[in-house]
Amino acid sequence: METEKKIRIKKFVFGIIAFTILLNLVFTEKNAAGGDVNNYFATFNKIDGVSIGTDVVISGIKVGEVKEIFTENNYPQISMNVNKNIEISDDSSISVQTDGLFGKKFLLIEIGGNNVHLKNGEKFSFSEDSIVIEELLEKIILIGEKNKGL
């Protein structure tokens, strides 16, 4: 009876220790991920195809991802995490691009020339919207119809 009680106590203590270690690992990973990135914002008119987790790219290299999408004054806002070691000048632009004709969307940052850099939590001044393929095809058809009449 007494050995059974000791076994229960050992299991309980082991369980508490294991739970504490797991809890510590979970919070350590969250803190490490939050400390290695800067958060930037951008305002667009259209963000078709962009979702949480969409890649943020500079010169073809993934440097971050979309963290949150929300609206402010009826315009889509994107919050993104970018690696902290990437310096982005305050005159840089961001655009919604497509990988190929029908590929997935990504955000492309074009680095500007200023020596002043965006700080954590700041907003891009220049943004370019997503191109919707249907609208592009409509424009091509209209141009073709106009030229056909000449």
What does the model show?
Strands 1-4-3-2-6-5-7 form a seven-stranded mixed sheet. The chain has two helices and seven strands. The chain starts with a helix and ends with a helix. It folds into two domains: 1-35; 38-148, no CATH class. Strand 2 (55-58) and strand 3 form a beta hairpin. By secondary structure, it is an alpha/beta fold.
- Percent of residues in helices: 25-40%
Average pLDDT rating: 86
Broad structural category? alpha/beta
* Euclidean distance between termini CA atoms: 102 Å
Write down the Rg.
25 Å
Which helices and strands appear, and what pairs or packs with what?
Layout: H1 2-35, E1 37-43, E2 55-58, E3 61-72, E4 75-83, E5 93-98, E6 105-110, E7 126-128, H2 133-148
Parallel strand pairs: 2-6, 5-7
Antiparallel strand pairs: 1-4, 2-3, 3-4, 5-6
In short:
With 150 residues, the chain is of the alpha/beta class. Helices cover 33% and strands 31% of the residues.
Labels describing this entry:
elongated; seven-stranded mixed beta sheet; alpha/beta
